[in-house]
Design goal:
The longest helix has about 45 residues. The protein is about 75% helix and about 0% strand. Helix 10 packs parallel to helix 17. The protein is mainly α. The model has no long low-confidence stretch (mean pLDDT about 85). The protein has one domain.
Length: about 475
């Protein structure tokens, strides 16, 4: 009996107009998204390679140590291939960061050169699933119970002693398969087209990450499918079901994810960018004035080495004090972001976006890991500069000729003496651990919606 209901549901869906519209939308949107995002990814790779080559050439052309110190080093992350499907924070993570001795790492421009990515939300697969397919899923099933009651077919089925649980389960399985098969066909069709035109290279764990992304998307779609079925059992007219379904979709997809960051900002305030800039200027001014007064009191203006030592010590104090301020501000910002994440997870949409970006390596955890790598790289750069200066001071210790001493101190720096930035890309297990809570939430939503639909349908009035 269950098999017959599933077959009937699939045939009814396949022969309907909304199935044809859904199929066309899936192929147009998903295949187009994968193709466009793949082209942009290849452009990013080109920019990344050219940026690295350009940075090395500038270092090689630097005339002396002073120029290298002023120029600093570039920390740049290689674009993530899975960002094609879930771009997440990749726009920020692929910005080059310049580290030097005088200020905190400064981010460069985004590698997403297409201005449409700034004007509109990036049309990756995550966006399409989150917005378009969730709406299609809930519209696909909103009248599966209430609509059949209006037509009288539901009463006819129950009059033939068909168990209610078999009807509900058959409708769920048949309807979900009717929705998911076109989605998977469009997804793999887009992958094949992209692979034939210009392949994206996935290595090792990235295939598992891609599979995890697909499973996360299927859980999200099935949750909205279950929500639509639950709404259908709450009402007795398809028109009412449609209004309730659209209202629920707007709240869960558009309202909660956009409102919760504002609420979190009010509950857990964090220092503004302007306040941080003012604190940084105040620290620099205070320390440099203290260094000037110390030099003036000890009458050391004629001794260039001692003047330089005093200002370098002042710069170190500035760096340490500013690091403490930054650590405090980052802690506040992280607390604010964590609160926003917790609040927004009551929404299916937020849970899906967090899960999809974490599993593909473009989420909040990866962004924070990148910041730690840049901080570590800045420490390596400072250590390298210190070792170079100490070695040159040792070489010039017994030299009295000032011109010769300055020539050695400011000699050209070999590129091999400088550290290289390394981004520690997280493996599948780490990505899965970050996404685990969101995957569990999606499973819980699925269970709750189906259980709600089951309990309501067991007492549903078909007359």
């Amino acid at each position: 009996m269950l098999t017959l209901i599933i077959r009937k549901e699939i045939l009814n869906n396949i022969l309907s107009l909304r199935f044809i519209v859904t199929l066309l939308l899936f192929f147009i949107l998903i295949m187009g998204s994968i193709s466009m995002m793949s082209a942009n990814y290849r452009k990013q790779l080109t920019d990344y390679s050219e940026g690295r080559i350009g940075a090395e050439q500038r270092l090689k052309q630097a005339k002396d140590l002073t120029e290298v110190q002023a120029m600093g080093l570039s920390a740049e992350k290689r674009p993530t291939a899975l960002g094609v499907f879930a771009i997440g924070l990749e726009k920020e993570m692929t910005r080059s960061a310049t580290v030097n001795l005088w200020q905190e790492a400064q981010a460069g421009g985004s590698k997403y050169a297409n201005p449409l990515f700034l004007l509109y939300q990036t049309p990756d697969v995550t966006y399409i699933v989150n917005i378009v397919i969730s709406l299609l899923a809930i519209l696909f099933v909103f009248d599966t119970i209430s609509g059949e009651k209006e037509e009288g077919t539901l009463k006819l089925m129950l009059s033939n002693s068909v168990p209610r649980d078999a009807i509900l389960l058959g409708k769920w399985i048949g309807g979900f398969l009717s929705l998911i098969i076109p989605f998977l066909l469009a997804f793999f069709g887009g992958w094949v087209v992209t692979y034939l035109l210009a392949p994206i290279s996935l290595k090792g764990d990235q295939w598992l990450n891609l599979l995890g992304f697909l499973i996360t998307s299927l859980l999200y779609i099935s949750a909205f499918f279950g929500l639509g079925m639950f709404i259908s059992t709450l009402t007795h007219r398809s028109g009412t079901s449609l209004m309730v379904a659209l209202f629920a979709w707007v709240i869960l997809v558009l309202t909660i994810p956009n409102v919760t960051p504002i609420i979190a900002r009010q509950i857990q305030p964090a220092p503004s960018t302007g306040k941080m800039a003012g604190e940084q200027q105040a620290i620099q001014r205070e320390e440099f004035q203290a260094a000037q007064e110390e030099i003036r009191e000890k009458q050391q203006w004629e001794d260039r080495d001692k003047v330089q030592d005093r200002f370098e010590e002042a710069q170190k104090r500035i760096h340490k004090r500013w690091e403490r301020v930054l650590d405090f501000n980052r802690k506040k910002l992280n607390e604010q972001a964590d609160l926003a994440v917790i609040l927004s997870r009551i929404s299916l949409s937020a849970a899906y976006v967090y899960g999809a970006t974490h599993i593909t390596g473009t989420g909040i955890a990866d962004f924070r890991a990148l910041r730690q790598d840049i901080k570590r790289f800045m420490g390596e750069y400072e250590d390298a500069m210190r070792k170079i200066r100490e070695e040159r001071q040792r070489q010039t210790k017994d030299i009295e000729d000032e011109a010769q001493r300055q020539q050695i101190m400011n000699a050209k720096v070999e590129i091999e003496q400088l550290p290289k930035f390394r981004f520690h890309e997280r493996g599948f297990n780490a990505c899965l651990n970050s996404a685990l809570i969101d995957l569990v939430l999606l499973v819980i939503f699925n269970v709750l919606f189906f259980l709600g639909a089951f309990l309501k349908f067991m007492r549903y009035d078909v007359t």
